[in-house]
Design brief:
2 copies of one chain form a homodimer.
Chain A lengths: L9 E2 L18 E5 L4 E3 L7 E7 L2 E6 L5 E7 L4 E2 L10 E4 L4 E7 H10 L1 H26 L3 H15 L7 E3 L4 H8 L3 H13 L3 E3 L4 E4 L2 H8 L13 H6 L24
Antiparallel strand pairs in A: 1-2, 2-9, 3-8, 4-7, 4-9, 5-6, 5-8, 10-12, 11-12
Helix pairs in contact in A: 1-2, 3-6, 4-5
Chain B binds a DNA duplex (30 and 30 nucleotides) through α5.
Chain lengths: 266, 266
DNA sequence: CGCGCCATTGACAGGTGTCAAGAAACGTGG
DNA sequence: CCACGTTTCTTGACACCTGTCAATGGCGCG
């Protein structure tokens, strides 16, 4: 029994909302609604389902031995999740927004369907690739050393994932604690950093979780780009990489050490 | 031409070494040998190939705007990589061991093959799932705050990935700088931490990159587990999670704040 | 209303990045 | 084989950032 015991609704599936057409895969789905904090699956549960979130939000997290929590991923509408190579769940997933809608696909049936329908197989494959892309980009975020970088990158990520170009305002579904555990820093530092960004007039805070991006340029400046791939100037990395460590303006010396292509063409 | 211009060898593919049977996929492959530092693909290259590393090692990295480097993944024998959802490469991959052998599969042909052969599709899908699993586990590593935790987790990861249970000695293919950029910390700290671990007799250093794990228990203690899923005691997370923040011995208060299932069953 | 949870702010110490210097390892060429 | 330059690795000193502890206010909810 891996689904929350209190899971109330089980809608007959016809016309699942969402931006991606899953074709026959939808007929395997059952949809459930989750309240805040309700568990979608637990650590060590058997990996028997794939999931897709239709509305709301969820967090995928783990607890370390000393009782600290780390959030591996925020799951937003349209995302597929639960692609685990292992037999058992390595993480647990809980809803963080009220009335979060999640579709569930039995692995085995879905696999069988994928075996018979290349179209399905392709959809699943691409969903998995998207997960990889998201995780890798997130990796870079976590790799940032300063709190300002992390939080700025996080805000940009949320803005992008919510396609909030129009109004420039994001309504964060997660608490400061969640953000802290997501960025691997203390809550207090998250709070302080947001205050700092507000003081700089880079962002404005309406309700506590309502962030308006006043100066996206400044935010990207701090976040150091790489958050969004398709931006204007892809930045010529080869130049930076191949030159023997250029001054690079006010480079904080930082984490980069070896030039990218040493011993090139040896 | 995204492959290194100096790529010397192109073996006729028959009987690619490696631990996984790729079936007909192998007929699409071309294998090349790379020297240290040679580029497999670059940032912004079109994503036209999938890859599989047969021997040696490689790093997948990115450069931030201020010239720092972050290594997203170390790629070891058996790993498939290059699964990008985007049209262009978000990262660059370079060999870090001499004579690294890498097989290359054209995406389009491979996709076509996967469409016609469910077996192939399944193999690719599972390889992608494995990437996800590895990335997620790595996420947790990066989420660690202390240098000791990070380095310990890293050493355990390398030991596991090299299946080095027998001799307890790992020969790291990467430099300290690579490790630093992988763990998002300064080289000096990596060095200091290794020295510290040696002082504790947790590890021993033969050659500089030759690490012998003297006290795996201590290493796991510091790394806080979660690095390897299938260890003896999976640690009952539910207990920790559902109780209202137990004292948890000498809990450093840390990153964990909210109990896992608040408002459970609402 | 009062109890949790969430969010913010302050004070402080410890850890880690930074700068600097030197030792060790490696490859190359004499 | 040795000399030499380059790269890698280590160690030290110091300042700053961020985690920790503590206290307060706001907010939702029973």
């Amino acid at each position: 029994m891996e689904i929350s015991p209190s899971m109330p609704i089980r809608e007959p599936v016809e016309g699942i909302p969402g931006d991606r057409a899953l074709g026959d895969l939808e007929r395997l789905a059952s949809v459930a609604r989750y309240g805040i904090g309700e568990t979608v699956y637990r650590f060590n549960d058997p990996s028997e389902y794939w999931f897709r979130i239709l509305s709301g939000a969820a967090r995928k997290s783990t607890l370390t031995g000393d009782g600290r929590r780390h959030i591996v991923d925020f799951i937003l509408p349209g995302d597929m999740f639960g692609f685990d190579a292992a037999e058992c769940r390595q993480f647990c997933v809980e809803a963080i927004a009220p009335g979060t809608l999640i579709a569930r696909y039995p692995c085995r049936s879905a696999e069988r369907l994928a075996d018979s329908d290349p179209q399905i197989a392709r959809i699943v494959r691409e969903a998995a690739f998207e997960s990889i892309t998201r995780l890798q980009r997130r990796m870079v975020t976590l790799g940032r050393t300063s709190a300002l970088e992390k939080v700025s990158t996080f805000l940009l990520e949320m803005a992008d994932r919510y396609h909030t170009a129009a109004t420039h305002t994001v309504l964060l579904p997660m608490s400061r604690y969640d953000i802290a555990d997501y960025l691997a820093m203390a809550v207090e530092t998250v709070s302080r950093t947001l205050t700092e960004l507000r003081a700089r007039h880079t962002i404005a805070l309406g309700a506590v979780r309502q962030v308006r991006i006043c100066n996206r340029g400044a935010l990207e400046e701090v976040a150091d780009r790489l958050t969004e791939p398709g931006s204007s100037a892809p930045r010529d990395l080869t130049r930076i990489a191949s030159s023997p460590m250029p001054p690079a303006a006010k480079s904080p010396r930082g984490i980069h050490h070896q030039r990218c292509n040493d011993r090139w063409g040896r």
